[in-house]
Amino acid sequence: MNAAIAARPAGGSTVRRALPWIGLVVRLGLAAVWTFAGWEKATNPAQAAQAVRAFDVLPESLVEPVGYALPYLELGLAALLIIGLGTRIVAGISALLLLVFIAGISQAWARGLAIDCGCFGGGGPIAPDQTKYLQEILRDIGFLAMAGWLLFFPRTRFSADAWLAIEDDDTH
Questions:
Q1: Which of 6, 9, 41, 46 is most deeply buried (CB count within 10 A of its CB)?
Q2: Beta strands in 100-172 (DSSP E)
Q3: Cα separation of 49 and 55, whole Å?
Q4: Rounded CA gap, 73 and 33, in Å?
């Protein structure tokens, strides 16, 4: 029986070899999300500020700074994900930001606000029958799952982290 076990190929090694490739797809997918979201907001910062204002959670003195800064935070996260630098940290920041977005959409829905989240440009008040809160929350949960994957499996192919040989606790 021991000879049969020894002769069996290690299935775990195939999965282990696939993880960096899966991570690459997830890392670049999340980078694409942040690129598109950030770019759409950066091209119209006044509209981005209007989207932040529509959530009615920040004092007016913070609406424009947040609305104007958010696109550049998203683009910065995208750039770091594209090059694969600090992947676990960037994934953690992404997860926190996505949790804030999910909470913001949820509170708008619970309060009966009729707004477009402005997640990918636009934003602000809309007709009540045009809200898509459930779809927006589910979409962001999907993006959160991507960030979660990178938190647990930050080693990806074609990343600066790998080229710099940055060690993670999960590589030993």
A1: 41
A2: 115-116, 124-125
A3: 10
A4: 13
Give me the residue label for tokens 């459930």.
Answer: 134
Three-state SS at 161: helix
CA angle 114, 98, 103 (to 5 degrees): 45
Residue 137, Cα to own-chain centre: how many angstroms? 13
Domain ranges in the chain are 19-162
Q: What are 136-161's pLDDT values in tens digits?
A: 999 999 999 999 999 999 999 999 99
Q: What is the pTM of this model?
A: 0.86
DSSP code for 129: G
Name 121's bridge partners. 119
Query: Helix axis angle, 133-152 relative to 11-42, nearest 10°?
Result: 130
Query: One-letter amino acid identity for 91?
Result: A
H runs (alpha helix) in 43-86? 45-54, 60-83
Please give the Cα distance from 136 to 122 (Å, whole number). 14
**Which pLDDT value is given to residue 8?**
47
